[in-house]
Amino acid sequence: MSNLFWLTYEQMERLKPFFPKSHGKPRVDDRRVLNRIIFINRSGLRWCDAPREYGPPKTLYNRWKRWSDMGVFARMMEGLASEGGEEKVVMIDATYLKAHRTASSLRAKKGGPSISAGA
């Protein structure tokens, strides 16, 4: 499959300090696991529907769950956002931000301030 997502080795080097230490048996390749987690989150697929090149779904889900519970992803985002000091600009790709089309009407029905296009 040519449309698989792969972090470069340079990008993985930047992320390496945020991974938990391996205790005992060596872990499955962190790069392959993280690439699948990103691929799943970007595409909205179920774990079992991602390409086999990323490895077994159960291993990847378990790693995602464990790392999420440990705060690994939050530390990655905070660490990457703080690199470069205060002058660094953080940009968000709006194609991955989604809001339900009725969100503004639901807020108004619950008594909260309504959101208007001109505000």
From TrEMBL:
<dbReference type="Pfam" id="PF13340">
    <property type="entry name" value="DUF4096"/>
</dbReference>
<dbReference type="InterPro" id="IPR052909">
    <property type="entry name" value="Transposase_6_like"/>
</dbReference>
<feature type="domain" description="Insertion element IS402-like">
    <location>
        <begin position="7"/>
        <end position="77"/>
    </location>
</feature>
<protein>
    <submittedName>
        <fullName>IS5 family transposase</fullName>
    </submittedName>
</protein>
<dbReference type="InterPro" id="IPR025161">
    <property type="entry name" value="IS402-like_dom"/>
</dbReference>
